[in-house]
Design goal:
The protein is an alpha+beta fold. It contains 9 helices and 4 strands. Strands 2-3-1-4 form a 4-stranded antiparallel β-sheet, with helices on both faces. The mean pLDDT is about 95.
């Protein structure tokens, strides 16, 4: 099995999702799609991690509120892997502002806010690589094949 076309991406299930007890529903959506969970952990974010992750917003008026929110409760960080994983995950997650997000997406079904929007998802291969490295050590990422892989992907997908 060749996984050369497979991508890894990071999602962060944010404090509001944990408070609302919808973590399992969120993970279930990615599993149903056929994405592999290759890294998973729950953690409290510190101020340095939040600044590093949201560096492009550090000078914005809303950054302090965003930082406090992300540090207010644990988050669940997950590395997902699959063919076209970044784009697939972004579709499942939905657009950033909850009340504008597509019905059926995670944000469309569960979010009303732009900042308290349930979940973060990497938006490019470069950002995914950097974000995964920020939240996971190499030994926390697992490489494995699923027994049902042939039911998820065609031989051409794995070539």
């Amino acid at each position: 099995m060749a996984k050369g076309k497979f991508e890894k991406t990071l999602i962060i299930i944010k404090p509001d999702a944990l408070q609302r007890d919808i973590v399992g529903e969120i993970i279930h959506r990615f599993e149903r799609k056929g994405l592999y969970i290759v890294g998973l952990k729950m953690m409290h974010l510190d101020e340095e991690t939040v600044k590093k992750h949201y560096f492009k917003y550090k000078d914005k008026d809303f950054f302090q509120e965003l930082s406090e929110y992300m540090r207010s409760f644990p988050v669940v960080c997950i590395v997902l892997e699959g063919l076209g994983a970044i784009g697939s995950v972004r579709k499942i997650v939905g657009t950033r502002i909850g009340y504008e997000a597509e019905a059926g997406s995670i944000r469309g079904d569960f979010a009303m806010s732009g900042h308290k929007n349930i979940i973060h998802a990497s938006d490019s291969p470069e950002n995914a690589k950097e974000e995964i490295e920020n939240f996971f050590k190499p030994e926390e990422i697992f490489n494995y094949a699923k027994v049902i892989e042939s039911e998820i992907y065609s031989p051409e997908d794995l070539a």
